[in-house]
From TrEMBL:
It comes from Collybia nuda. This is F-box domain-containing protein.
Length: 302
């Protein structure tokens, strides 16, 4: 039994320890246990549909646990990968029609047993989270995943301060619905990663993606302070900046472009910077880099 010490002294001792060691202090005393619980449940990583993930979701039903979550990371890897075979895609498209809300009877599984439904019921409780990361690449997304995202935006959106979106162009219109634009009143830090897809986007997909991103950014004109952009192709950055408005509180701007710096059209960027010369304090146009967080690199490992 460790003799009790003043709370202030315990907090000072805990501040000296590496965060990775904090979970080991669970059960030492009340202060240590509280900090251990804070660290254990600080992040929720929704990446699979295994038993451990379902156990976490069940635990999030308790306010004492869900209130500790600060970062929600969504990158489901259990969806079927996109394939170039038309017959397979046609079959999956036909199947996803059965997931329309309140219309047809579920023919493939009961939504109560679906991990997405369980995740939806759990994440709705994480209203204290201040950071959200969504990573979607070349997977086929069921309609029920869209319902999950709607719940996440509605429940977590009002308290979010940092948002990271890592997706292929085709996925951004699915993530960024018009209804979410009013759910992010406190967002100050935005990171957008335009990942590479095995399937080149069509002109329509490209246009819709840039439109969805510009609508999101322009909805954050009052609050946005930091903007980071990753893109493999220069054209996407140029088109995006052409649609942006004035951000009165923008202080930091970082652009990572893997190709095309030599042919960069300066007018788009210089005009944007000229409008923000009194606000932007940190600007970086970075050279090609080896650790670019494209879809071939797990964002969690960066």
């Amino acid at each position: 039994m460790i003799p009790d010490l003043p709370v202030e002294l315990w907090l000072y001792i805990l501040s000296l320890l590496p965060r990775a060691q904090l979970p080991k202090l669970l059960g030492v005393n009340r202060v240590c246990s509280a900090r251990a619980m804070d660290e254990i449940y600080r992040e929720v990583l929704f990446t699979d549909d295994g038993g451990a993930m379902l156990k976490t979701f069940r635990q999030l039903q308790y306010p004492a646990i869900s209130s500790r979550v600060q970062h929600v990371y969504i990158q489901p890897r259990f969806f079927p990968e996109m394939a170039a075979k038309p017959r397979f895609l046609k079959l999956m498209k036909r199947r996803m029609l059965h997931f329309r809300r309140k219309q047809t009877q579920m023919l493939f599984f009961n939504p109560r047993d679906d991990v997405l439904f369980i995740a939806q019921c759990a994440l709705v409780n994480c209203t204290e989270a201040t950071e959200l990361t969504i990573a979607l690449h070349d997977f086929i997304l069921p309609a029920s995943f869209g319902y999950l995202l709607e719940t996440v935006w509605t429940s977590l959106g009002p308290n979010l301060h940092r948002l990271t979106l890592n997706a292929t162009l085709a996925k951004f219109p699915l993530i960024l619905k018009d209804s979410l634009l009013s759910t992010l009143p406190n967002l100050t830090d935005l990171c957008i990663i335009l990942s590479i897809s095995k399937f080149p986007p069509t002109h329509k997909q490209h246009t819709l993606a840039i439109r969805a991103l510009s609508c999101l950014l322009n909805a954050l004109t009052v609050t946005l302070q930091s903007l980071t952009l990753y893109s493999y192709e220069l054209e996407e950055i140029v088109m995006l900046f052409q649609a942006l408005r004035y951000f009165p509180h923008l202080q930091k701007l970082a652009i990572h472009v893997a190709e095309g710096q030599d042919s960069f059209v300066p007018q788009t960027l210089t005009q944007f910077l000229a409008r923000h010369e009194n606000t932007v304090k940190h600007f970086a146009l970075l050279e090609p880099f080896e650790t670019a967080p494209w879809n071939k690199v797990d964002l969690m490992e960066l």
